[in-house]
Amino acid sequence: MQQSTRSHCGKFGLLFIPCQLGGEFQYTYNKIVSMQREEMIHKTNASALRKTETRAQAPPVSAQQKRVMELKRFSQQLQNVHPNVLAKHLRRSVLYQDKDVVIINKPYGVPVRDDSGATSISSVLPVLSKLMDGVKVKSDSQLLPCLSLDKETTGALLLARTEEALEKILNQVITVGVPVPSEGLIDIPIIEREVTGPQPHFKMALSPLFRMNDTGDSVIKVRAHRQAQSAATKYRVLDSSSGCSLVELQPLSGVKHQMRVHLAFALACPILGDHKYSHWSKLAPQKLPERVLGRLGLEQSKIRYLPLHLHARQLTLPGTSQNDINVSSPLPKYFSQTLSQLHLKFPDEKEE
Known about the structure:
It comes from Sphaeramia orbicularis (orbiculate cardinalfish). InterPro entries: PsdUridine_synth_cat_dom_sf, PsdUridine_synth_RsuA/RluA, RluA_PseudoU_synthase. It catalyses: a uridine in mRNA = a pseudouridine in mRNA; uridine in 5S rRNA = pseudouridine in 5S rRNA; a uridine in tRNA = a pseudouridine in tRNA. This is Pseudouridylate synthase RPUSD4, mitochondrial. This protein has helices at about 1-15, 20-55, 65-80, 85-90, 120-130, 260-265, 290-295, 335-340, 345-350, and strands at about 95, 100-105, 145, 155-160, 170-175, 185, 190-195, 200-205, 210, 220, 230-240, 245-250, 310-315, 325-330. It is an alpha+beta fold and about 350 residues long. The protein has 2 domains: about 70-165, no CATH class; about 165-345, Pseudouridine synthase. The strands form 3 sheets. Strands 1, 2, 3, 4, 5, 6, 11, 12, 13 and 14 form a 10-stranded mixed sheet that branches. It has a two-stranded antiparallel sheet with strand order 7-8. Helix 4 (about 85-90) crosses helix 5. The chain starts with a helix and ends with a helix.
């Protein structure tokens, strides 16, 4: 009877050992499994501990660094999304619409036009036209951008189905430096020039109609360059603090990078975050004074992430009735936070 039991256990258990050894084998097997489980738990805990120590040892990231890095990721996501996704985002950002015009709040980092084939606002306008519910759209009409804001510019962007006479657009910028005088008109033509050197590139530049004479006691008129474009910009300083200024700009012409060039080269007060026009002879991140870096809580090595602080705040269109159409665009979060850090305020906030 004992032999029969051993054969039965050996046959159906597929263990070629006597059945009376089964208890000892099961004990050994359980012990091995328990040891392996404890080893896996130990490795998992050690790995989690190393990750915790790595996070603890990582240098702290300032709030401003987090904001600009998030902004950079956000802008890249919008550029790489499907055109329908961008069109839906623009539909949600509409500030004003009627049967002839649409005004949207342009997001940061998205170009109005892009000849390279990348996703741009112009490329999704046919889809946006179809999404404009509640507006009677002619079958042969299509939205077209009337003003071409820079890729890094935010704010009110006018789209029209017919030619519209734009009366006025007001921009708010933060400049590095204080413009002198505090209010005026910059009327200097602009031309595109090639910058030679280790990093050859093209930039818009001033093409003045006047220059100092040889003795330096008067100015003389020079012949206008035939490729230069007339450009005029009104400006007004709203507030100054911490070596920076909040400035209101009204472009009276539509030359490429006009406001950036006039501020950087005519007033020597480049826009905060303008890495292109803060230097003439090289391509490099904007160099900021230590005082400004301290206010922003940034290191110079991280300035490349600082966005351009140029926002199209208010747009005015001539109305069909006696009243004009005035549309305001809210400031982006990063712009408002920078104003707070630099202790800059709008005139109406000072009166409160």
